[in-house]
Amino acid sequence: MAEIINMPRLSDTMEEGTVAKWLKKVGDKVEEGDILAEIETDKATMEFESFHEGTLLHIGIAEGDGAPVDSLLAIIGAEGEDISGLLKGGSAEVSTTNESPKAEEAPKASVPETAGSGKEVAEIPKGVEVIKMPRLSDTMEEGTVATWLKKVGDDVEEGDILAEIETDKATMEFESFYSGNLLYIGIKEGESAPVDDVLAIIGPKGTDVEAILNQKSAEGQNKVPEKSEPETSTTAVDEAKASEASEVAVAPDGQRIFVSPLAKKMAADKGINLTAVKGSGDHGRIVKRDIENYKPSESAAPAAGVADTSAPQPQTIKPVMLPVGEEGSEEIKNSQMRKVIAKRLSESKFTAPHYYLTIEVDMTNAAQSRAHINDLPDTKVSYNDLVLKACAMALQKHPQVNTSWNGDTTRYNKHIHMGVAVAVEDGLVVPVLKFADQLSLTQIGGAVKDLAGRARIKKLTPAEMEGSTFTVSNLGMFGILEFTSIINQPNSAILSVGAIVEKPVVKNGEIVIGNTMKLSLACDHRTVDGATGAQFLQTLRAYMENPVTMLA
How many CB atoms lie within 10 A of CB 426? Predict the structure, then answer.
């Protein structure tokens, strides 16, 4: 009997997944334990193995496509088994991209009936495929076309790379699942569009693309925005159509200037006269790149600081040499990781009543202890490792800090999982050191090095970034003396670690040179009172200033 395989939930926060790669194809034999596919979540790409044996009869989510958890991913059963009943009565998420249309059905594009219309939508010509912006990650809401590897008029084979698309996680190659001629490009290089917007159209040469686009517009689905009119399209679009997809400016001599809305705004922001710009788009239309590449001639540059000699001059005015230049700025679209960081930290800051406590720690003994430890063969620990060990032991003595606020209850965590903030190219991730209180200094050092290294190349699994009960953020290596952090919820506290500095200190009534470090604790006042936070820092300082006590 055929088994339906659904999109798995690979982490407790996962809502959607993307099939990065299929390792089996329809018709292949599958054994229990075989790797079916690589599935990308918002945190990592993981192998997904089969728990069933049989033949892979159907693939419901194509490579590069995303779908919600529990959507139909695949069907495994006996070779030749009839699965039409499962496909008809299965989940609404079933995608039959990888199967041919049934013979008795008219070959239509996969466009559903308009809701409430009571009639079928007009057919798109046979062999024409409307390619939409794919969902390449579970959190992706829009994508940016980084590079087109095909241009309008090129022949496309199934499996050819059409474009490179930038998602919230990475820039990924997007391949075609169809063969034909690239008739239309709906999203230009550098532009962004929501998932399911028209990306391209592939079909036989000579197809009336305008009819298809008009039909899509009439259906009220995936209406092509004005900006999607292709700049380099070679399809039969007359000048009247081009003018509809542009804004029209009028020069002083009455001449009409066709310009894209974005280019018009950029020109206004930069103070560029559109009559001086030569358009490179269809029918001389001025587009974004024309404004970006525009360089005013020297004759057009204003003569700064020159007095108006046409008016009477009561006295001689010495010209003032003012700086001359062109104002400029650039807007970069926020990555999905950046948006998630902003959302979660904003939620933490505005829901948890933060307060901050700071102490200064004498690091003289810690420096000496670290030097002795690192003199041992094959042993190396950092100051950050000492901080993590001290925090884990201090949490044992102050369980109130190792808690989470749950509204009507407060959860006391009996385990100690330390989150370690790691800066990556696109933002910040927090791998978790599990049962940190049970690890030695050298074990902590090795584990943190491994986790941080894999975090920077996005090779951590979701399980390795979940479950922290307390977090440490260290900017001391960047020379930051003191700072405060936003709590990494659901934790109740986060420790900010500054740099070790050499400075005069008072010891035994004398001024001597000492090495100190500032530690700042941000606490959630709902769970950790001020006195509790202060006592935790006192214990932490005792461990840091006398590291030998951590080895007892």
Answer: 15
User: Which residues are annotated as catalytic?
Assistant: 525, 529
Half-sphere exposure of 484 (CA within 13 A, CB side): 13
C-alpha 4/C-alpha 73 separation (Å) is 8
Q: Which two tokens stand for residue 386?
A: 């000492």
pTM above 0.70, yes or no: no
How do beta strands 247-250 and 171-175 pair?
unpaired
* Owner of token pair 């190219």: 425
Domains, the chain, ranges and CATH? 3-89 (2.40.50.100), 129-237 (2.40.50.100), 243-299 (4.10.320.10), 336-550 (3.30.559.10)
**From 25-29, 242-246, 401-405, the region with the lowest mean pLDDT:** 242-246
- Cα–Cα dist 157/281, whole Å: 28
Angle at 204 between CA 201 and CA 207, to 5 degrees: 70
Which position has the higher pLDDT, 5 or 43?
5
With a CB cutoff of 8 Å and minimum separation 6, the contacts of 296 are 272, 276
State the sign of the Cα–Cα–Cα–Cα dihedral 47, 48, 54, 60: negative
* φ/ψ of residue 106, rounded to 5: -70, 140
What does the alpha-carbon distance between residue 393 and residue 540 come to, in Å, rounded to a whole number? 8
E strands present in 135-186:
142-148, 155-156, 161-166, 171-175, 180-185
* Site of tokens 């001359």: 324
Q: What angle do CA 386, 389, 393 make, to 5 degrees?
A: 135
CA atoms of 78 and 53, how far apart (whole Å): 9
Are residues 181 and 120 in contact, defined by beta-carbon separation less than 8 angstroms?
no
